[in-house]
Design goal:
Layout (H helix, E strand, L loop, with lengths): L8 H10 L3 H8 L3 H6 L1 H14 L7 H7 L3 H9 L18 H10 L3 H7 L3 H9 L13 H6 L5 H9 L14 H11 L4 H16 L10 H10 L5 H6 L1
Helix pairs in contact: 2-4, 8-9, 12-13, 12-14
């Protein structure tokens, strides 16, 4: 009696492509190692098309892969037609801060911006290695601007700077990453953890040329003075 396994690989591909739902295709690909290997390209292409047409309240495949840092899935998506400049319309993924959640809903970020806003360092580093543009902005905000907002992420900032992020580039309203960090410090002066994060990020940005000795707003100067950084760093050494 003929078995589906005895059919030619081309027919297996046609069967996979003819299945009506992604769930059916996924189930067939999990039948055994042969089907998993044969249907990989079809599976990921279908995942991309389903994601593009999905209901706004469902999580897209990019968002799922980034939020769980499934680097192998990201690699397969990019290999089978995905794009590093793809914009993710927020559909319920995991963003580990209020700002990340809010920013992703408003701005439909690129893959790198989505990884940065969710504090997913491994995913961000992987995307940069794949060729993601470290200074690509959405509505004026680039990855470095996002990394220093609300809960500054010093490890993420290090990754972005190492990849060539412009530490002096202003956002849409004219705030450079250092200015945004100082503003965050001022807003959260009662939160010790965030203040420590802000100081570490500010020190890193200054070390890479973010402070040029130019005029600053009073609140920025006060924040630098409290941190003993920039023009006030010598005071720390004298003490």
């Amino acid at each position: 009696m003929p078995s589906i396994l005895t059919l030619a690989a081309e027919l297996h591909l046609l069967i996979g492509e003819s299945l009506a739902t992604f769930q059916d295709l996924s189930a067939l690909s999990r039948t055994n190692r042969y089907f998993n290997t044969t249907l990989t390209a079809v599976l990921y292409k279908r995942a991309l098309s389903v994601s593009a047409a999905a209901d706004p309240h469902t999580q897209c495949v990019y968002d799922w892969a980034i939020s769980r840092e499934r680097l192998s899935t990201l690699s397969q998506l990019l290999r089978h037609g995905g794009s590093l400049s793809q914009r993710i319309h927020y559909r319920g993924g995991v963003a580990q801060s209020w700002y990340g959640w809010f920013w992703r809903r408003r701005h439909a970020p690129t893959l790198l911006l989505a990884a940065v806003s969710a504090h997913k360092i491994r995913a961000a580093r992987f995307l940069l290695q794949c060729g993601a543009e470290v200074n690509e902005a959405v509505n004026g905000e680039g990855p470095l601007h996002v990394a220093v907002h609300i809960r500054p992420d010093v490890e993420m900032v290090k990754v972005l700077i190492e990849a060539g992020a412009d530490v002096c580039r202003p956002d849409l309203v004219g705030w450079a990453p250092l200015a945004s960090t100082l503003k965050t410090w001022s807003f959260h002066y009662k939160d010790g953890e965030i203040m420590l994060r802000c100081r570490a990020v500010a020190k890193l940005l200054i070390a890479h040329g973010a402070y040029n000795g130019g005029p600053m707003l009073g609140v920025q100067r006060a924040a630098l003075a409290a941190m003993r950084l920039g023009p006030f760093e010598d005071e720390e050494e004298e003490e």
